[in-house]
Amino acid sequence: MPDRYSRPVTAGPISTTRPELSRWQTLAPLILAVSATLRVASTMGYYLVKGDAFFDLRVYVLGGATVGHPDGLYDFFYVDPTKGEHLPFTYPPFAAIVFAPLHFAPFWLVALAWQVALIAALYGTVRLSQKFIGGGSQRAAMLWTAGALWMEAPSSSIQSGQIGIFLMLAVLYAAYDSRWWLSGLLIGVGAGIKLTPAITGFYFVGIRRWAAALFAAVVFFGTVGLSYLFLPDETRRYFPHQMAEAGKSLPVGSSWNQSWQGGLSRIAGHDVGMSPAVIGAIVATAVLAVLAFRALGGEHDRLGSLLVVQLFGLLAEPVSWTHHWVWVLPLMIWLLYGPWHDKPGARFLGWGWVALMVLSVPSLLSFAQPNIWQVSRPWYLAWAELVYIFAALATMIWMVRTGRRA
Asked: Is pTM, for the whole model, over 0.85?
């Protein structure tokens, strides 16, 4: 019997038969190979010459190295050799257990393998996005992947050695697959490594996948129990104290932080924390997200509905770095090829997100901040640095208006 969660939504094809694009698709494997090689070579070269790369991966490796040693997991800092920044381990203790094997291999080999795996996960993300909306060729996915490697969110994720692309792929597969236990397992383990995938629980509840939502919570608490078994002191320290304090040790006011707390802090000129203004903005965004979710019909457009939940999570987090915004890649595909691709405004938003990611707007604006810790800046820069926030709100407002017209 066909499963209601595995049926693709009928939509326009993600590929096209126009002759000029057909020629590009013929060369797609070569284009992806060249793009991936240049991406890996440039990042490795930058790391060898400047040393300012893979800093998040360094934190993972060092965090994993503390397992079984008396050094405190939440006491050490990785010091960036070029900028002198102190980067702490801000993840749950279960993440350190997962990362523990990484420190047994030479770091350059870990960094190289990590990059290759991230590129493969990026391709998997595009392919899954295609399947959600009713199909698309592998060669079209190759072209999207080749281009995405040079967009701000995926590019910065690869350069820093972040885990976000892996988690995005896991969340997408959890939403695509119909097996409650596998979907719950992926989200629970993902949240155990980094808390952000937990927001997907709202998606499961919204489409009434109760078993998946419940099992995800069970698996997450299982990771906490496993952490307590191997790292009791660190687990007691993280839950709830270190978890609540994690964002406070980070440069919230940086232009790379595209969350409500970051944006409003830059406007105010100081870290506003979880002030009434931030809480009000999050509540208003939650209302907008619920309206957008309902406009999309929940399970009737599963990719679009999932993306609404992820956009809300990005805006609500205390710190939402630009590399967290890798979710814009499936969003662009949904806007340009999904079930609403022929609606007025869909192409404008889709290509608008492409332009923002290619131009790396927050990174360009970061040149106006003397250092990453600076919060205050001129009003015109403070408002301009809300660019991803405004774009996300505009996208959800468009979803609500288009849904009502439909």
From this structure: yes
